[in-house]
Design goal:
Order of helices and strands: HHH
Protein name: Cell division protein FtsL
Shape: elongated
Number of strands: 0
Distance between the termini: 80 Å
Number of helices: 3
Radius of gyration: 36 Å
Strand content: under 5%
Length: about 120
């Protein structure tokens, strides 16, 4: 009986050692993937910072004003003035009459029941 207990104990220790060995390598692999992802995130943040700087450089008001002046003949852009803004009550919304509604000609079955007229 003792021999069986010793053998089972040795097999249990070997099995736990094998499990710990596999878990160690899986953990190391996960840590390596995490480090790689962090490097990619840092590189993406650096690229984003460069793109934001380029966007700020391209959106300089003096540059945009110069481009508007150069292309005035084709675009006709003028500076915005305060009298171009209005109040919300000055907006005229279109009135929709009840007889202007169009009938539905090609209904689509969104309930997936297959009941189409």
């Amino acid at each position: 009986m003792r021999t069986v207990l010793y053998i089972l104990t040795v097999l249990g220790v070997v099995g736990l050692a094998f499990w710990a060995y596999r878990e160690n390598y899986a953990t190391q692999q996960s840590l390596a993937e995490t480090d790689q992802l962090r490097k990619e995130i840092r590189a993406s943040h650096a690229r984003l910072a460069v793109l934001r700087a380029e966007w700020a450089y391209l959106n300089r008001p003096d540059r945009l004003r110069e481009l508007a002046d150069i292309n005035f003949d084709s675009l006709g852009l003028l500076p915005i003035t305060p009298d171009q803004f209005g109040m919300i009550d000055q907006v005229s919304y279109p009135v929709v009459e009840d007889d202007e509604t169009l009938p539905i000609t090609n209904p689509v079955d969104v309930s997936n029941t297959g009941d189409q007229p």
